[in-house]
Amino acid sequence: MPIQILMPALSPTMTEGNLVKWHKKEGDSVEIGDILAEIETDKATMEVESVEEGIIGKIFVPEGTDDVAVNTLIAALLEEGEDVSALEGMGTKSVESSVATPKAASDPAPQKTDPQPEISASPAPKLEIVAPIPQSSSGKVFASPLAKRLAAQHNLDVSTLSGSGPRGRVVKVDVEAALSSGAPFASKTRTQNAPQRVPQGEIIAADDLFPAYEKVKVNNMRKVIAKRLSQSKQTVPHFYLTVDCQIDALLTARQDLNENLEKAERISVNDFVIKAIACAMRDVPEANASWADDHVKIYQSVDVSVAVAIEGGLVTPIIKQADQKPLSLISAEMKDLAKRARDGKLRPEEFQGGTVSLSNLGMFGIKEFSAVINPPQGCILAVGAGEKRPIVNDSGALEAATVMSCTLSVDHRVVDGAVGASFLKAFKSYIQKPVKMLV
Predict the structure, then answer these.
(1) What pLDDT is stored for residue 373 in this prediction?
(2) Phi, then psi, of 431 in degrees rounded to 5
(3) Closest residue by Cα to residue 334 from 384, 420, 272, 283
């Protein structure tokens, strides 16, 4: 009996994915462990490998197909002695076990939440791409994360390659083909006069009201982000509290700590902020909570979710039990998690959950902002840049200090104003006297 290959669920919350590329074609032999296809989920593009052997009898879902539901029959394997006549009647949706499994649990999925009403959304429109994407001389190219990693490992510039994937995307097979053909290992260069962004979608002509525009397809990650943020703002009653923290003592402590550390081990301001959030949540546990309709969850561990920008969106890897970890360990974990987040290698348990979130835009020079709560968490802290500002010191004299504005977004169903203010007071005390975080 032919073996069904179903669309796999590559994360606990995945309901559909895009079939980016087939690595096998009809008639090809398949061994256990062979890569069958590349599937794009809401957070990453993953290779899927076979756990059975046979011959590809038929591919039911062609590559480039979007929004394929989990457990949809996408292909079938013929076992020894079978021919294509055994495939008659196949091609309908199935719920049996799939023979395809993810090569690695690297799909960062949206954070798991308590059961909530689903927000319906119309399917994203299918786009017609008029031509493959041209390559950019700046080295910026539309490529899958896997292709980028493979190219980087071999010092190959992906901007020199032509993509065979959907919308001209450079995929793994393109890199492998370039390596086998002896493509030049060109280094990426930057020029002062960088060219404009390369279009990734259909160019729609101007009309009487609007100029021409580029119609860019929304990927799964952006769909999930849009859905979750809309849900948060529509269902969670936000309010905001802002406090200014002087960070001169923190900067001095950071400099002293980093003097004897290698560059890769140095502690960042963000590491101090993570630790301060965790210590403040430990001191004010009522803020380390979430709403669950008929009860409030007050968490017994402080797990800090940290927003990390990745290609096409963001993911929130978690520093677990951050209040109990030294700065050096927080720093090492954060560097590792951020790198693997950008490479699409996080395990689900490393980004799902968390009891409070941090969004830091200080490195972009943003002075102050308010973040959207990450459900079901009750709080998210938005941190701006440290900048020199005039202050009045304790003796009444005017002096300059390095000040960082921090805004706490709060779910008013679970955290009241007094509790939020108590948390910020504790947070500020740790930031302004960082030695308290070291004991």
Answers:
(1) 96
(2) -65, -40
(3) 272
Same fold flag, 3-102 and 233-438: no
| CATH class belonging to 3-102 | mainly beta
| 64: Cβ contacts below 8 Å, ≥ 6 apart | 19, 20, 165, 166
- Please give the full DSSP string across 157-207, using - where no structure is assigned: -GGGSPP-SGGG-B-HHHHHHHHHTT---PPP---SSPPPPPP-SEEEPP-
Q: Which residues participate in catalysis according to the annotation?
A: 412
Q: E-assigned strands of 335-378? A: 356-360
For 72-104, give one letter per residue: b (16+ CB within 10 A) or e: bbbbbbbeeebeeeeeeeeeeebeeebbbebee
Q: Is 306 exposed, middle or buried (0-12, 13-18, 19+ CB in 10 A)?
A: buried
**Residues 319 and 304 sit within 8 Å (Cβ to Cβ):** yes
Record the tokens describing residue 334, joined without a space: 């954060």
* Per-residue model confidence (pLDDT) at position 383: 97
Mind listing the pLDDT tens digit for each residue in 398-431? 999 999 999 999 999 999 999 999 999 999 999 9
What whole-number distance in Å separates Cα of residue 300 and Cα of residue 181? 56
Q: What is the mean pLDDT of residues 221-227?
A: 85
pLDDT of residue 123: 37
Question: Higher-confidence residue: 406 or 81?
Answer: 406
Longest alpha-carbon distance in the chain: 91
Looking at per-residue pLDDT, the higher value among 125 and 258 belongs to 258
> What is the SS3 assignment for 63?
coil
Looking at this protein, which amino acid is placed at residue 3?
A: I
Tokens of 328: 């050096």
The answer to whether the beta carbons of residues 203 and 129 sit under 8 Å apart is no
Confidence of residue 216 (pLDDT cuts 50, 70, 90): confident
Q: Tell which residue, 310, 112, 312, 142, has the closest CA to residue 223.
A: 312
For residues 27 and 6, give the distance between their C-alpha atoms in angstroms, rounded to a whole number. 18
Identity of residue 238: H
Q: How far apart are CA 32 and CA 53, in angstroms?
A: 5
CA dihedral 90, 93, 95, 100 (to 10 degrees): 70
Domain ranges of the chain: 3-102, 145-215, 233-438
- The tokens 């990390």 sit on which residue? 308
Q: Is the dihedral of CA 348, 354, 360, 363 positive or negative?
A: negative
pLDDT of res. 108: 40
CATH hierarchy code of domain 233-438: 3.30.559.10
pLDDT of residue 95: 35
